[in-house]
Amino acid sequence: MRTSIVWARLLGVEKTVIEDVQFDEAAGAIVVSVRPRKKERNRCGICHRRCSQYDRGEGRRRWRALDLGVIRAYMEADSPRVCCPEHGVVVAAVPWARHKARFSRYFDDTVAWLATNCSKSAVQELMRISWRTAGRIIERVADEARERIDLLAGLRRIGIDEISYRKGHRYLTVVVDHDRRRLVWAAPGRDKATVHSFFDALGPECCTAIQEVSADGGTWISNVVTERCPQAKLCMDPFHVVQWATNALDEVRRTVWNEARHQGQTAQAKDLKGARFALWKNPENLTERQQAKLATVQVTNKPLYRAYLLKEQLRQVFQLKGERGMQLLKEWLAWASRSRLAPFVKLARTIREYLPAIHDALRLGLSNALVESTNTKIRLIARRAFGFHSPQALIAMAMLTLSGLCPHLPGR
């Protein structure tokens, strides 16, 4: 086997001619002189269209390759510019690296794979790059993968939610595909304009194909979905409805606790304060001590126990689902409205406002559980990296990890 072929395989390059190999004493690295094969020369760096040469650019430049053993390796070549009819004057494409990259394709793919599987410090130490550089590489690899794979094609059932990724009310809006169970879109922001931008990217034809959408009670989502996908069934997330009931229960608990304190009933107030988690938890998860606490509340405070039963019956609604669930919800609304508990009377009015969406959720069995799971994984990604300097880097990282876009390790 010729030496040039060995070096080409070591560097992981194709359609490339190896001209020379030297050791740079000053840089302490191996420098391999390369050039594209004849058919790969003078192509636009963006669209790879064959173009006329504009000038010689800035002369020779280097691209970082994967380390060879313990020694850094670079590829060195001319970097002429071409005049593309569509993109104007751009640097000519090279087969061993992405456009505007200072690293080889194998190097980029390795960093992207490591970033999705290792910690920030491990990527920095192993690849000998900064985390900002890793972020730019991740964005570059994710952008190319999204151009190759259309994640928005064939969407039928989607879930929309937001996640706080940084302090200062900085949010990402995320969209998941319930059928393929993967993240398909994310963007900075938490408002109607952000949701509109998703449907703009989806296109009118694909919008008409959307059949079911799961979301929480945010009007910034529901109003846009109704406008852009009027045929879609909007399903209210059951978890958020039960959470409303839990908040109403806690409001009742605080009210009776304050009344007991103001009336000098110190022992009863202490019992009510300690009953917080017994009231919140599902009955099947209660410890013996919490069961005893709940039994005490049943005997000593009827209004609070009634609020607890209201919360549990609403949870039972979403466990039954279908027509039985809708019938039980109808009975629950009547009970809550005459319960003489202000938080639950208010909650009954709120649920009636969202009743069509809740009925669709009961009928179709769709929830935001997959979206919440995706949000948890995005938080883990951000935590593992100890923060990102831009939302685009976090989005790119999330797309690589949760959308099936992550490249394989080179040579595997």
Global structural class: alpha/beta
Considering DSSP H and I runs of 4 or more, what fraction of the residues is helical? Answer: 40-55%
Written as H for each helix and E for each strand, in order along the chain, the element string is HEEEEEEEHHHEEEHHEHEHHHHHHHHHH
What's the main sheet like?
5 strands, mixed
Total number of helical segments?
Answer: 17
Low-confidence stretches: none
Q: Kindly report the average pLDDT value.
A: 89
> How much is the radius of gyration in Å?
29 Å
First-last Cα distance: 22 Å
Total beta-strand segments: 12
Q: What percentage of amino acids are in beta strands?
A: 15-25%
Choose one word for the global shape: elongated
Query: What is the spatial order of strands in the main beta sheet?
Result: 10-9-8-11-12
